[in-house]
Design a protein that fits this description.
The chain is of the alpha+beta class and 609 residues long. It has 20 helices and eleven strands. The chain has helices at residues 3-23, 28-39, 43-58, 61-72, 224-254, 273-308, 315-343, 355-362, 372-388, 406-411, 425-447, 453-459, 461-485, 491-511, 513-518, 524-541, 545-550, 556-559, 570-580, 592-608, and strands at residues 78-81, 97-101, 106-110, 118-119, 130-139, 142-152, 165-169, 185-189, 192-195, 205-206, 212-213. The strands form three sheets. Strands 1, 2, 3, 5, 6 and 9 form a six-stranded mixed beta sheet that branches. The protein has a three-stranded antiparallel beta sheet with strand order 4-8-7, with no helix packed on it. A two-stranded antiparallel ribbon has the order 10-11. Helix 3 (43-58) packs antiparallel against helix 4 (61-72), helix 7 packs antiparallel against helix 8 and helix 7 (315-343) packs across helix 13. The chain starts with a helix and ends with a helix. It binds ligand LYYUSVKP and flavin-adenine dinucleotide. Flavin-adenine dinucleotide binds at residues 46, 80-83, 87-89, 120-122, 179, 184, 364, 367-368, 370-371, 373-374, 377, 461. The active site is at 369 (proton acceptor). Belongs to the acyl-CoA oxidase family. This is Acyl-coenzyme A oxidase. Its cofactor is FAD. Residues 1-77 form the Acyl-coenzyme A oxidase N-terminal domain.
């Protein structure tokens, strides 16, 4: 399809999804799932995932009563317009202004510079009638920083942009992926006026007289929509990783290459240890991210309930966990999808393998909802603050509780003596705790050598990110272990998931061996025992590998992959797909007579001469 056809087809699918949601007796979860699967990525997605939550989280009761009924019936279609051409990560650097005019009781929205143009918001370019706009609030000449405003963008009768608004699409994005069906847009304001009551005023407000009343709650609650989406992105990482692993595992069981004895059948590539070493950690990651995503959803729900009771105690933990786990799981999943493409050899590069599309649509997850490095630096800031408080007698809690055992963890030596010890949850956990703590304390000690803490932080950014990642990996390993010790029923399933849990943990030890050795968390001999155990675990998982991906229960339609077909009937279907290609409509290609024939004939003529 051309981009316009792709876009219009997405509109058709999104409206169809909305029709089904309204007609079928669906639960909220089913409705959410239908919106996600039918519209991923599309404007419906962001209306529900960002526009509506922003109003719910930052609007007053009156504003919610006015705008949510319209949004819930999709009588208005909204987007979340925060990022600008010049600023995305640095929210406090946004330039769009919202200046209060007491004469008219309005805000004047303006884009003072080209870099202040809103740029990227999904659904902004062509579809949305409204947006939550983030702009610098200015009253009486004073800049109060970034605040949210609900703004109508288009005429509700003919969809034309309102006067004072220039709006459009930012152009084709990465690959041919479905993201090109999404109208990520640009928007400039030219002294565009909105009523004062369209500033989202749950957190802070402006009175009729133009007096700014700051928030009596942490200003970061304005970031609440991003936190809620980051939390969902972790579970989405599990789904994307599972899709890629399902394709690569099934194909690795179908594909045979080399290894035939005396002309016999060739070897399934899934039996090569290198294939297992690349594939099974990704299989384990799909399960690991699912379980940590379940836990993160609980954490987010818990902090939301606490916030409603004005209990902000766990807000820093929720921010650090959503930011860090979003960052870590999306980076791992993007790399994992690409690895799955390579695990399928040449056929993995075909569009009909489903992997190029999955990669093209998935990889922006490393950037949107917060650049992954910027988010890990938020985790690092949280860890440094926690380490600095260790001596204060304030016991760290939640995911940093292990830091309360710093005295032990800083000096303990791993008691791993044989390969089987690497199947001991307490020993594995302590190894990850020791590594994470020692990396964080090392950063804190190095920071303390700088007189200027900000300068020290800037100098040590790379080390801080690695310490943050170590902390996040500990969270994932610990939540996998907790899941196994708790909810998993059925001995057979539990044994298989145990194998995956330790594959996940031990492959991380192998991948980040430098950290574990340099912090003396393990010795090189213990690392060798871990590798030995890893190979043994691969052997145990191998017979169940296909069953473990079948367990994701993805339909062939959803997987969209000839290589990942449930029936494994790959080769005939590859030909079937190939013959559908328009290039095969004729046996002699367009262009032969204009270009190929003259070339060949000219060559033949000169050869005769
Ligand atoms: C990088 C950020 C967080 C910096 O924000 P800033 O206001 O400059 O805060 P500081 O770094 O100075 O930290 C001050 C203080 O606040 C805490 N904090 C920061 N963020 C949060 C939060 N969300 N919740 C709770 N607490 C927070 C921080 O920990 C500090 O606490 P201290 O105790 O240490 O003082 C910010 O600029 C940011 O979030 N940048 C990323 C922007 C982003 O994510 N954009 C996404 C746009 S929407 C999008 O991409 C949509 C995509 C579509 C799709 O999903 O499909
Ligand atoms: C597909 C897609 C959809 C999007 N949808 C929306 C949407 O609906 N609404 C919306 O508002 N936005 C949206 N965005 C924008 C997105 O949120 C931003 O692109 C994202 O937050 C990253 O910000 P940036 O582009 O400014 O990156 P930058 O911050 O400019 O990153 C560039 C590089 O600088 C590095 N860097 C930046 N700051 C620091 C620092 N302090 N220390 C160390 N390194 C640093 C980063 O790590 C990165 O390597 C979307 C983006 C994409 C790709």
């Amino acid at each position: 399809m051309t981009r316009k056809e792709l876009f219009k087809n997405t509109l058709r699918k999104s409206v169809h999804a909305w029709k089904l949601i309204n007609e079928l007796p669906l639960s909220d979860d089913e409705s959410l799932m239908l919106r996600h699967f039918m519209d991923q990525p599309g404007f419906l997605d962001l209306h529900w995932r960002m526009f509506v939550p922003a109003i719910k989280g930052q609007g007053t009761e009156e504003q919610k009563q006015k705008w949510l009924p319209l949004a819930n019936k999709m009588q208005i279609i909204g987007c979340y317009a925060q990022t600008e051409l010049g600023h995305g990560s640095n929210v406090q650097g946004l330039e769009t202004t919202a200046t209060f005019d007491p004469q008219t009781d309005q805000f004047i929205l303006h884009s003072p510079t080209q870099t202040s143009s809103k740029w990227w918001p999904g659904g902004l370019g062509k579809v949305s009638t409204h947006a939550v706009i983030y702009a610098r609030l200015i009253t009486d000449g004073k800049d109060h920083g970034v605040h949210g405003f609900i703004v109508q963008l288009r005429n509700m009768d003919d969809h034309s942009p309102l006067p004072g608004i220039t709006i459009g699409d930012i152009g084709v994005k990465f690959g041919n992926g479905a993201y090109n069906s999404m109208d990520n847009g640009f928007l400039m304001f030219d002294k565009f006026c909105i009523p004062r009551d369209q500033m989202l005023m749950r957190l802070s407000k402006v009175t009729r007289e133009g007096k700014y009343v700051p928030s009596d709650v942490p200003r970061q609650l304005m970031y609440g929509t991003m936190v809620s989406v980051r939390q969902t992105i972790v579970s989405n990482a599990s789904i994307a990783m599972a899709r890629a692993v399902c394709i690569a595992t099934r194909y690795s069981a179908v594909r045979r290459q080399f290894g035939s004895q005396n002309g016999g059948i060739e070897t399934q590539v899934i039996d090569y240890k290198t294939q297992q070493n690349r594939l099974f950690p990704l299989l384990a990651s799909a399960y690991a991210f699912r379980f940590v995503g379940e836990w993160l959803k609980w954490l987010y729900t818990d902090v939301t309930q606490r916030l409603e009771a004005s209990d902000f105690a766990t807000l820093p933990e929720a921010h650090a966990c959503t930011a860090g786990l979003k960052s870590m799981t999306t980076s791992a999943t993007s790399d994992g999808i690409e690895e799955c493409r390579k695990l399928c050899g040449g056929h993995g590069y075909l569009w009909c393998s489903g992997l190029p599309e999955l990669f093209a649509v998935y990889v922006p997850a490393c950037t949107y909802e917060g650049d992954n490095v910027v988010l890990q630096l938020q985790v690092a800031r949280f860890l440094m603050k926690t380490v600095s408080q260790l001596g204060s007698g304030k016991a760290p809690a939640g995911t940093t509780a292990y830091m309360g055992r710093a005295k032990h963890l800083l000096q303990c030596r791993s008691s791993i003596r044989k390969a089987e010890d690497w199947l001991n949850p307490a020993m594995v956990l302590e190894t990850f705790e020791a590594r994470a703590l020692r990396m964080a304390v090392s950063c804190a000690n190095n920071l303390s050598k700088f007189e200027n803490q900000e300068q020290g932080f800037s100098e040590l950014l790379a080390d801080l990110v690695e310490a943050a990642i170590a902390h996040c990996q500990l969270i994932v390993v610990s939540k996998f272990i907790v899941k196994l010790e708790g909810e998993i029923k059925g001995k057979g399933v539990k044994n298989q998931l145990k194998n995956l849990c330790y594959i996940y943990a031990l492959h991380l030890i192998h991948k980040h061996l430098g950290d574990f050795l340099s912090t003396n968390s393990i010795t090189s001999e213990q690392a060798s025992l871990a590798n030995h155990q890893l190979r043994s675990l691969y052997t145990q998982v191998r017979p169940n590998a296909v069953a473990l991906v079948d367990a994701f229960d993805y339909t062939d339609h959803y997987l969209g992959s000839v290589l990942g077909r449930y029936d494994g009937n790959v080769y005939p279907k590859l030909f079937e797909e190939a013959l559908k290609d328009p290039l095969n409509d004729t046996v002699v290609p367009d262009g032969y007579h204009e270009y190929i024939r003259p070339l060949i004939k000219q060559h033949l003529r000169s050869a005769r001469l």
